[in-house]
Amino acid sequence: MSFLTFNIPMLSIFLSLLSAVICPMLPKKNQAFHLVRIVELIVLAMSVYLMVQLMTIRESFTYMMGHFPAPWGNELRAGPLEALLATCFSLVMVLSLTGGAEDIRRDIMPHRQNRYCLLMQLLYTAVIAMVYTNDLFTGYVFIEIAAITACIAVVAKESGHSTVAAMRYFIFSSLGSGLVLMGISILYCITGHLLMEPLQVAIADLCQKGLYQLPLTASAVLMILGLSIKSAQFPFHAWLPDAYSSGTTATSAISSGLVLKGYMVLLLKLILRVYGLGTLARMHMCNLMFIMGLLGMLITSVSAIRQENVNRMVAYSSAAQISYIFLAFGMGNLAGLAAGCFQILAHAFTKPMIFVGTGALIRAGQGRSFWSDIRGAGRRAPLAGIAFTVGGLSLCGLPLLAGFAAKYQLGSAAISCGWQTYPALFGLAVSSVLNAVYFIPGILVIWNRPPEGAVFPPMPRSSTYQHKISVICFLIANVFLGSMVGTVMMVINRGLQLFS
Amino acid sequence: MLEDYEAYLKYVADHPKVSFEDFRKKREKKPRQAPSVVEEYDESEEDAAMEAEWNEGHIHRMKMWQRSYAVLSVLVSAVVLVFFFQVSIQLPPFGDPTNPDLNEVTERYIEKGLEETGATNIVAGLILDYRAFDTFGESTVLFAATMSVILLLRRPRPVKDSPIPRDRILQMVGLVMIPAVMMFGIYVVLNGHLSPGGGFSGGTVMGCGLILAYMVMGRSRLEHYLTPNRLTGVTVACLCTYGVLKGYSFITGANHIGWEVPKGKPGAIFSSGFILPLNICVGIIVACTMYTFFSLFSERED
Question: Where are the alpha helices (DSSP H) in chain B?
């Protein structure tokens, strides 16, 4: 393996972190914005290169952070799956920032924009670090960074709503971090390790001897609940709709596309690399995740139907899509985990596209985000309308789009489970219908004729080409994920095989 | 002017005591808002009636919810309490030599820590050499918190200065204390690799010193030197230094290049490689964080 390939994970984290740190020193606001996106593009290119390299040599590697080997120092780990996730997250980040640029300029005061870019870049670094980390405590440190920056990103758009929403988000988020930290400490108490491989060995040993079973279960419960609070999984999704509907477009897109997914990646690592599927299934954790996912995808979809505000509806739909991932992880087999990974990618490309489209539709409508205000907005901003339409249809499960492929993978993974088969298929079918029930009226509304005598504000002219590029890239990525399922699944499966 | 007066005539009908001058001042003082914040719009009577009806139902639902909330929260807390008691009883006892967390990991930290990191203070060697990446992350958490507070609370134009406090006792005692506190903080930071202490604890002491100086001398005198931009600059410089130093040792370490930093003689002030400069960086970051929090929050309270 060449010198460059080997160092890519560490370089990705350090480059993005250092670029974030120097943001407040840049004199003009646009410089920070450009710097942030250039660094993300560099990381994107490096991750693609890393993925191709690792797929050809068919192996993964660990990277020692410093002079001390595994259980003593920190460690990163990179395999095909990590490289794929880093690639997708970088792309989503660049596209969301580019697509939301117009709204950032409108919503956030000029003297704050530099620091907003800084926080977004820190958030991105945290997610990339969660993808590559091989150490539970390092994972926790970056959970904290993601928690702080995501909350502040919501409140950066100054309004009463966003302040209240961010407070609520912060309380939930701190509770989640606290639970994860307690889980990690209990695990450290009974095993003496923080690194994932030795942890797995130690846990297998404990299970064999039958020691400390209650603390072990407690640590698993705490960490799974903590991560599900932070990723807005069903009983804990109360913070999500307000936080997403009151933040600026880029914030909502990045939070739903990246932050929630970062926690899901950590959860995947916990399942496969720390506890192991067998142990988790014996502790009934798989059933817990499965039931949470199943209830979540039905109940949040029903709540989404009742929304009058388009952003809130999309936010509830995010909570429903996270439930799909929980459902997939709860199936307790490798096929389910692979389907969950595909759902992570599909949702990471679909939801930011919808948010970017919605942002432009709101701008093109009468200025607010209620359905009545954006009636006919699709005719004024056709590309944004197409983004919303394609995203909505993708989540409803139209073939050739990413959402369909994800549902297909979930369904085929469910076939080979035990008792979960029928509930999972039932949940998939019902939630797809519910998705259609709330997305299709929305699509009809935006393409409808605007009401008589409606007063539209003038369309902003400047820099809409950025928005266009972003939406077109999202559309291509969506169709690519939907039509090239085989290739993507091959990378995911190889990554998962090297994972455990 | 004429527009203003017309608006005033409408306004005065509800608020008879407000003079025209006051009204104009009030209008001019309107806080700056981001352009997208929606202004309040007039509600028609129909809207108001509907809203009243909705409010009534809402209040009823809220009351029901509050009652069930009280019961539920007590129940959930009780369950969680029992659960954690059970778990903590089953955890390994504190200080038992057969505990699982006393394994080869801690053994090497304690037995070889001095030799491998050159730091007499094992904790400093542990957090700044063995697990330096985690500490880098922790410093970044502090940086993120500072930047968030600045983003939320800093105003574009400086606000009026608060007067110097007239509390003589505070002033006299403070003037005596500040140098001592600062010196102690610097000592704890610089001696971090030799004795208990280090960047985090020493930085906290220095931060307290700065806060004391703020209270004794007033903001304007302190901000003569410590302008918000300079504080940010210093923090950024420290974090960048940390990143570059550690980036160097991560790359050389992971690729087995060698080029290790000389450890020096254990116990000497210039020893243990990068730990001393890293401690200084962490200390300055912590001190700046504490001071920025205090000054921004107290500025808002004035």
Answer: 2-14, 20-28, 45-90, 104-117, 122-125, 132-153, 168-190, 199-217, 219-223, 228-254, 275-301
Rounded Cα distance between A200 and A164, Å, is 41
Residue among B79, B131, B141, B156 nearest B246 (CA): B131
DSSP three-state, residue B231: helix
Which residue among B38, B246, B260 sits closest to A368, beta carbon to beta carbon? B38
User: Is the CB of residue A327 less than 8 Å from the CB of residue A410?
Assistant: yes
Q: Enter the tokens of residue A222.
A: 């705490």
- AA identity, residue B53: E
How far, in Å, CA of A249 to CA of A98, rounded?
11
Q: Which amino acid is at A140?
A: Y
Its pTM stands at 0.89
Among B80, B85, B87, which would you mutate to test the A interface (most chain A Cβ atoms within 10 Å of its Cβ)?
A: B87
Q: Note the ipTM here.
A: 0.90
Domain ranges of chain A: 3-499
Contacts of A277 (CB under 8 A, 6+ apart): A271, A286, A332, A333, A334
DSSP A195: B
Output the CA angle A200-B92-B134, nearest 5 degrees. 55
Residues of chain B positioned with their CB less than 8 A from the CB of A144: 137, 141
Residue A377 contacts residue A458 (beta carbons within 8 Å): no
Q: Which of B99, B131, B240 sits opposite A74 (nearest CB)?
A: B131
B263 phi, psi to nearest 5 deg: -80, -25
Nearest Cα of chain A lies from the Cα of B66 at a distance, in angstroms, of: 16
- Domain membership flag for residue B83: no
How many structural domains is chain B composed of?
Answer: 1
At A77, which helix (H) or strand (E)? Answer: strand A74-78
Interchain contact, A66 vs B104, CB within 8 Å: no
Distance CA(A373)–CA(A326), nearest Å, equals 35
Separation of CA B107 from chain center: 34
Instruction: Answer whether A481 touches B (CB < 8 Å).
Output: no
Considering the domain boundaries, does residue B241 fall inside one? yes
Hey, are the CB atoms on B87 and A186 less than 8 Å from each other?
A: yes
Interface probe with B: pick from A3, A15, A74, most Cβ of B within 10 Å: A74
Q: What is the three-class DSSP state of A75?
A: strand
- Render pLDDT for A144-188 as a digit per residue (tens, 0 to 9): 999 999 999 998 887 788 888 999 999 999 999 999 999 999 999
pLDDT tens digits, residue range B207-241?
999 999 988 887 778 888 888 888 889 999 999 99
Closest residue to A188, CB basis, from B87, B101, B233: B101
A56 burial class (0-12, 13-18, 19+ CB within 10 angstroms)?
exposed
- Cβ contacts of A202 on chain B, cutoff 8 Å: 100
Which of A 134-193 lie inside 8 A of B, CB atoms?
135, 137-138, 141-142, 144-145, 148-149, 151-152, 155-159, 186, 188-193
The answer to whether A190 touches B87, Cβ cutoff 8 Å, is: no
Q: Judging by beta carbons within 10 Å of its beta carbon (0-12, 13-18, 19+), is residue B32 exposed, middle or buried?
A: exposed
Say which of A66, A106, A156 has its CB closest to residue B151.
A156
- Give A206-257 pLDDT, tens digit per residue: 999 988 899 999 999 999 999 999 998 888 888 898 888 888 889 999 998 8
Q: How far apart are CA A484 and CA A346, in angstroms?
A: 12
Structural domain for B219, as ranges: 122-301
Do B105 and A158 count as a contact with CB atoms less than 8 A apart?
no
Chain A residues touching residue B151 (CB < 8 angstroms): 112, 115-116, 119, 152, 156
Mutate to test the interface with B, among A13, A19, A67, A122 (most CBs of B within 10 A): A67
